[in-house]
Amino acid sequence: MIIDCHGHYTTEPDALTDYRKAQLAGVDNDPDFVPSAAALDITDDQIREKLEPNQIRLQKERGTDLTIFSPRAVGMGHHLGTAETSIYWAQICNDMIRRVCDLYPDRFVPVCQLPQYPGVEPAKSIPELERCVNEMGFIGVNVNPDPSGAMWTDPPITDRWWYPLWEKMEELQVPGMLHVSGSCNPNFHHTGAHYIAGDTTVFMQLILGDLFADFPGLKFIIPHGGGAVPFHWGRYRGLAQDMGKPPLDEHLLSNVFFDTCVYHQAGIDCMTKVIPEKNILFASEMVGAVRGVDPTTGFNYDDTKRYIDSTPNLDDGQRKAVFEDNVRHVFPRLKI
User: Fold this and answer.
1) Which CATH superfamily hosts domain 3-10+50-330?
2) Is 285 a catalytic residue?
3) Given 12, 277, 285, 324, the catalytic residue
4) Do residues 253 and 221 make contact, with C-beta atoms less than 8 angstroms apart?
5) pLDDT tens digits, one per residue of 21-48
6) 294 φ/ψ angles, rounded to the nearest 5 degrees
7) What was the pLDDT predicted at 328?
8) Does the pLDDT at position 264 exceed 90?
C-alpha cells in the first residue's frame, strides 16, 4: 500500500477562501470587528468538482492509495488576524477536512490545524485538538513551531511553554507535523525559504533540548525532507557531539521522522543514504509547493514515488517500510 503522509487541501471551494478574506478584512477595517463562524453554503458536488480532477486524479495516475490530509499549510496564517479569528478559522478548515474524508474515505484520512497565534500559549489549542481527535476521528495534527510567521517570537519547541500540548498529543497518540505557515517577512518566500528554514530550525531546537526524556511517546514529522538536515547530517552529528549530547540516533531518531517531499532524484538519494529508512515516511505534498514539470525528466517535480522507486539505497523491504509500514507506526490511530 502507498500512503502519502503529507497532503494539503489546496483545491478548496472558493467560498472557503472568500470567507477567510472577509474575516481578515473585517479585522483590518474595524477595530471592533467580532468574528463569527462561517455560514458556508458549499455543496458536496462543489467539493467533488475541485478534488476529482486534481488530487484524486493524481493519486490514481501516480499510484498513491491513501493521503493523510490537512488544511492548506500557508492558509493556516497564524500570524494574521487575531487569536479569536484563528479559532474560527481552524474550526472551519478542520470541518472541511472532515467532509472531504467522509466523501472519500478510501482516499483521505484527516489531520487538523490548530488555532495558534503569536504569544498565545499552545495550551489554548488543546480544545480544538481534542474536538478533532475525540469527536471527529482525526489521526494527527499540524503544529506551527513559529506562529509569528518568520519572526520566531515564541519560545523554542523544547521549552515548557509547549509542554501542555505535547502532553495532550502523547496522551491522544497523535503525531505532530512541525509545519510552519505563511511568512510576514518579505525576505522569506514561504515555500522556498520559510518552510525549509523552519524545518531546519526545529531540528536544531530538538538537538539543543532533551524533550523526549519527558515525552518518550511523542512523535514528530519534519516535512520537506527535513529541510537542510540530511545534506548537513555531519554538521548536526558533530554539533550534538560537541555539546555532549548522545548520538543522534539515540537522542532523536526514536521520535523524529522525515517525509519525502524532496523534488529531485539526487535529493532523495542523499536522504535515503543518510537517514535510516525507519525514519522516512513517503509524502508528496501534491498539489502543493511545486506544481510544474521537470524538463530534465518529463515528469512533475512532486511525483515523488518515482524517486523512491528509483533510488539505489533501498531494497524492496525498505521501500515497503517507507511507503507504508513507517506511516502506520507513526500514526497509530490510522486504521485501514
Assistant:
1) Metal-dependent hydrolases (3.20.20.140)
2) yes
3) 285
4) no
5) 999 999 999 878 888 888 788 999 999 9
6) -75, 115
7) 98
8) yes
